[in-house]
């Protein structure tokens, strides 16, 4: 048992790049709950990239209404949150804010095609999914996380 949860999170390529470059400290999700501080988030860059590109540790979590979350995160200097985030979360009743710590870009992204060669039934999550310690994907990721 590793003592922490690992989540695969689908994020638009623009936002994955901002997180991995350190420009974006917070990720907003309409799907609240599940992810907690101390978790590992593995980043799946959605269309057109379609690849696992990196990871970060969750420093903190804040959950609230859209108005509460937007007010808090946009008040932080260097939050990386701007108007491009708004359409995604504006309609959510509860919004989850994930603070990224120590983002790491993988030396070689793991493409959807490569994942499906090893796990034919794999489908990227619409938002995020908890990867059980015995999941096939976690085993595949172990080979690229060390690079």
Side-by-side strand order of the widest sheet? 2-5-4-3-1-6
Biggest sheet record: 6 strands, mixed
Tell me the number of helical segments per DSSP (H or I, 4 or more residues long). 5
Task: Examine the secondary-structure arrangement and name the CATH architecture.
Answer: Roll
Percent of residues in beta strands? 25-35%
Number of domains: 1
Mean pLDDT over the full residue set: 90
Report how far apart the termini are. Answer: 22 Å
| CA-based gyration radius | 15 Å
Which structural class is indicated by helix and strand composition? Answer: alpha+beta
CATH fold call: Archaeosine Trna-guanine Transglycosylase, Chain: A, domain 4
What does this structure look like?
This protein has helices at 13-21, 66-73, 86-89, 112-118, 136-145; strands spanning 6-11, 26-29, 40-45, 51-64, 95-111, 128-131. The chain is 26% helix and 35% strand. The protein contains five helices and six strands; from the N terminus they run E-H-E-E-E-H-H-E-H-E-H. The chain has 147 residues and is of the alpha+beta class. The protein has one domain (6-140): Hypothetical protein (Archaeosine Trna-guanine Transglycosylase, Chain: A, domain 4, Roll). It starts with 5 loop residues before the first strand and ends with a helix. The model has no long low-confidence stretch (mean pLDDT 90). A six-stranded mixed β-sheet has the order 2-5-4-3-1-6.
């Amino acid at each position: 048992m590793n003592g922490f949860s690992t989540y695969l999170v689908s994020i638009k390529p623009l936002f994955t790049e901002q997180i991995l470059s350190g420009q974006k400290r917070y990720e907003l999700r309409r799907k609240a709950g599940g992810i907690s501080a101390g978790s590992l988030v593995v980043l799946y860059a959605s269309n057109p990239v379609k690849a696992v590109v990196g990871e970060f540790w969750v420093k903190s979590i804040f959950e609230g209404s859209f108005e509460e979350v937007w007010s808090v995160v946009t008040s932080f200097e260097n939050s990386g949150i701007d108007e491009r985030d708004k359409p995604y979360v504006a309609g959510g009743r509860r919004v989850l804010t994930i603070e990224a710590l120590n983002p790491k870009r993988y030396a070689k992204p793991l493409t959807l095609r490569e994942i499906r060669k090893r796990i034919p039934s794999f489908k990227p999550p619409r938002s995020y999914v908890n990867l059980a310690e015995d999941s096939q994907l976690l085993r595949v990721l172990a080979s690229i996380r060390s690079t």
